[in-house]
Design goal:
The protein is built from two helices and seven strands. By secondary structure, it is mainly β. It has a single domain, classed as 2-Layer Sandwich (NE0471 N-terminal domain-like), CATH 3.30.2020.10.
């Protein structure tokens, strides 16, 4: 069974990217734009709503009620090489 580091923080960036910070210190970048075509996430096309997120128990949640699977975020994001 695959294990993933716990998501500790997510910073919404311009152009619908998320900078993800995991409990092991790893930083990754996730492009959220493809999700905006899904009905569940379409209202997050409003950048103000997109940026109004929080991380709760390792999951991203938006004030408008959406959430997103942390495993998908990890698997589909790219490591940030600093």
């Amino acid at each position: 069974m695959q294990t993933y580091p716990i998501l500790k923080n997510a910073l919404p960036l311009d152009d619908y990217f998320l900078m993800l910070i995991f409990g092991d210190g790893e930083e990754r970048l996730y492009d959220f734009k493809p999700n905006l075509t899904h009905k569940y996430y379409e209202e997050l096309a409003d950048m103000r709503l997109f940026k109004a997120l929080s991380v709760n128990e390792g999951e991203i949640e938006w004030k408008s009620g959406q959430d997103f699977c942390p495993h998908t975020l990890y698997e589909e994001s790219q490591p940030i090489n600093l």
